[in-house]
Amino acid sequence: MMMNVLQLQAQLARDSPEPEGNGRDDVDVLLDELEQTLDAAAIGRRSDLTQVPELGEYLKYMKPKKLAAFKGFKRAFFTFRDLYLSYHASGADAGGGPPLGHFNLKGCEVSPDISVAQGKYQIKLLVPTAEGMTDLVLKCDTELQYAKWMAACRLASRGKSMADASYQSEVDAIKNLLKMQNANGNGRHENGTGPKKQSVQLPGDFNVDEYVSGRYVRRARSKQSLQQRISDAHSNVKNLSATDAKLQYIRAWQSLPEVGTHYFVVRFRAGKKPELIGVATNRIVKINPDNGETLKTWRFAQMKKWHVNWEIRHLKVQFEDEDLEFKPLSADCKVVHEFIGGYIFMSMRNKEQSQTLDEEMFQKLTGGWQ
């Protein structure tokens, strides 16, 4: 629903003038942002001399692929320090006893599983370990707790700790997204209630089919009920400019669990039937087409090289522990090759390095058939 109302707000506000910048141009604004970032980084470095940022709270957890998952969530005391997530039976045990679990989250996959209306705040982790990929689900009690732990997990997956200057901005961005998903716009209150905002009057030519996918329209009680939900939720974003609404829409899209994953039907070498794979920003996954479950993951970080046999249209990808060879059936092998090369090229770019586009490297990674 959040993305629906952001799309609506972007369209409603497109003819409205953007808010004035108090006579300050874009250069002044960017310089102020740079100054704040440098100040935050300096403060972070000074605090690092005496204290390393750390989280320590009771959370509930579950390992979905273990038999114990049938018993539901368990409660434990979790700590987060640097790039490591650990948990103990109690806070007293965390003082020096061996942990029940200890994970390095660098390179892990982090995805949200939330429903603000139901008070559900869960973090799904897929962590590379010596035994393979380990599934872990963390269950938080409040929005604030979820925002802190989700931000820490996301940064750790990118190799950054909570000492990084971007940690607080990551927390704030998550809190803003949660606030927009709340129909009341007030987060979760201690008594479970809050002042309800007044619904917004939708335009007379509003068509719900232009904002909500057909399958959700068919599952709803009626189009009128969907319109009412959109009207209620729109009150949270009605003051956003068109530009801000578009930026929030992009951030919401980027937070979706499978964002950037493209699916292909392939036949593996020596395979007798077609299989489904997904090419994501940092991995190739084999997927069960019946339920969408990930059967196996091959991460780009463990890739040595990949090669395309243009004569038989096969792709061969060499990883540290095995080779993967398949023939795309639903698309030309050139398309799969371009996705793999394009994602690897994107992973080589970051804010700390020069953003000058290396066209030669891009062509080298995505070309080869000319």
Question: Summary?
Answer:
The protein has 370 residues and is α+β, with helices and mostly antiparallel strands.
Distinctive features:
370 residues; alpha+beta; 7-stranded antiparallel β-sheet; 9 helices
- Secondary structural class: alpha+beta
Count of helices?
9
| Largest sheet descriptor | 7 strands, antiparallel
Number-wise, the strands total: 14
Spatial extent as radius of gyration: 23 Å
How would you spell out the order of helices and strands? HHEEEEEEEHHHHHEEEEEEEHH
The overall pLDDT, averaged over residues, is 79
Query: Strand fraction band?
Result: 25-35%
Measured distance between first and last alpha carbons: 45 Å
Secondary structure blueprint with pairings:
Layout: H1 2-12, H2 26-48, E1 54-62, E2 74-81, E3 84-88, E4 101-104, E5 109-115, E6 120-129, E7 132-140, H3 143-157, H4 167-181, H5 214-219, H6 223-234, H7 242-254, E8 262-268, E9 275-279, E10 283-287, E11 294-299, E12 303-309, E13 314-319, E14 323-328, H8 333-347, H9 359-366
Antiparallel strand pairs: 1-2, 1-7, 2-3, 3-4, 5-6, 6-7, 8-9, 8-14, 9-10, 10-11, 12-13, 13-14
Helix pairs in contact: 1-6, 1-7, 3-4, 8-9
Describe the structure.
The chain is an alpha+beta fold. The protein is 32% helix and 25% strand. It has nine helices and 14 strands. The chain has helices spanning 2-12, 26-48, 143-157, 167-181, 214-219, 223-234, 242-254, 333-347, 359-366, and strands at 54-62, 74-81, 84-88, 101-104, 109-115, 120-129, 132-140, 262-268, 275-279, 283-287, 294-299, 303-309, 314-319, 323-328. It has a seven-stranded antiparallel β-sheet, with helices on one face. A hairpin with a 6-residue loop joins strand 8 and strand 9. 21% of the residues are buried. Residues 45-49 and 183-194 have low confidence and may be disordered.
